[in-house]
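Justification of resources, computational component.

The compute hours requested in this renewal are based largely on the per-chain cost of generating structure records like the one below. Each record pairs the submitted sequence with a full structure-token output. That output is archived, and it is also reused by downstream analysis tasks.
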Amino acid sequence: MRRGRDYGITVLRVTLGIIFLMHGYLAVFVDTPAGATAFIAKLGIPLPAITVWFVILGHFLGGVSLVLGFFTRLGALVHVAIMGGAIFFVHLREGFFLHGIIVDAAAGKATVAGYEYALVLLLASIAILITGGGPLALDRSKR
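The structure output for this chain reads:
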């Protein structure tokens, strides 16, 4: 019989999956792939068109895998790469603390800066990679 604390990794996995799905939604339907590609190119990230689709597909497919707990470690591994790249190429130079910078006051749009949030997502992905999906994952191994 499982104890309540055994489900902590399941809560983390599902929450992380939903967050990544929402990031995929943002990239496709709000920023658009063309806008995201232009942003990535402006930052000097290599192969921006390929990188954007890796990130979009990684967020959608990896997010679904985390929510369902199916190919859990693969979904986490993809996000280790994505969030490691986000920290290194985008957020590291902005400092540790998360803060907003108003870019377009008329539209009320803020750009997030600081790497603390991306670091939490990276470390949570590493935790899932190490532990697997937990007791409610579709791919959980028999112990």
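The radius of gyration is 16 Å. The chain has one domain: 4-131.
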